[in-house]
Amino acid sequence: MSTDNGTVYLLQDDDDDGWETPVPADEVITNAVLAATDLTVEEVGDIEQYVDEETLRGVVNDGEPETFTVEGHTVTVSADGRVDVE
């Protein structure tokens, strides 16, 4: 889910009620990186230093996953909202 010129959103499962909720992509990616690594918010910083918003918009609109590196960790974002961190 995205807007043409605004924030890019990824749909995320809402554990409480089973609904999917749109969440800003940078927030989803940051949370996934923090959960999978020992990095801090300060070390990760702004996600746009690793992947730009237009690229994320392409993931959502075109359905092709995008892989990039955040502080030495491989991150793959998929159109279904999944973020894998290795």
Entry keywords:
86 residues; alpha+beta; 3-stranded antiparallel sheet; 3 helices; 5 strands; 27% strand; globular
Structural notes for this entry:
With 86 residues, the protein is of the alpha+beta class. It has three helices and five strands. It has helices spanning 25-36, 41-44, 53-62, and strands at 9-13, 20-24, 66-70, 73-77, 83-85. The strands form two sheets. Strands 3-4-5 form a three-stranded antiparallel beta sheet, covered by helices on one side. Strand 3 (66-70) and strand 4 form a beta hairpin. The mean pLDDT is 90.
Largest sheet: 3 strands, antiparallel
Question: What's the total helix number?
Answer: 3
Number of strands: 5
Sheet with the most strands: spatial strand order: 3-4-5
| DSSP helix fraction | 25-40%
Q: Beta-strand level of the residues, as a percent range? A: 25-35%
Summing up helix and strand content along with how strands pair, one would put the structural category as: alpha+beta
Question: What Rg is obtained from the alpha carbons, in whole angstroms?
Answer: 12 Å
Q: Flag low-confidence runs.
A: none
What is the global morphology?
Answer: globular
Averaged pLDDT? 90
Distance between the termini: 25 Å
Which H/E pattern describes the elements? EEHHHEEE
